[in-house]
Amino acid sequence: MSEQDLRGVRSIALLTPGDFDDDAPTAGLEDTLDLFELGERLGFDGAWIRQRHLEHGVGSALIS
Q1: Which three-class secondary structure string do you get for the chain?
Q2: CA neighbours within 13 Å on the CB side: how many for 55?
C-alpha cells in the first residue's frame, strides 16, 4: 500500500478473536494480552476482540 493510498487514515487497530482452549483459558487471555502489547509496540492505535455468540473467546470486559 502506498503512502497516497493511506491519505485520510487517522488510526489503525487490530482485531482478534481472543480464542482459548477449554482446558487452559488463562493461556488464551495471556496470549491475547501479549498480542495487544505487540500491537502497541508496532504503533497500532487500538485493539478489538471479536465476539460471537456461542463461540469460546476472551470477553473484552476482562481486559478493559
Answers
A1: CCCHHHCCCCCCEEEECCCCECCEHHHHHHHHHHHHHHHHHHCCCEEEECCCCCCCCCCHHHCC
A2: 10
How many angstroms separate the most distant Cα atoms in the chain?
Answer: 47
Question: At CA 47, angle to CA 62 and CA 38, rounded to 5?
Answer: 100
What is this structure's pTM?
0.68
- Which three cell numbers mark 29? 487471555
Which tens digits make up the pLDDT trace of 19-63? 877 787 788 888 889 999 999 999 999 988 887 666 666 664 544
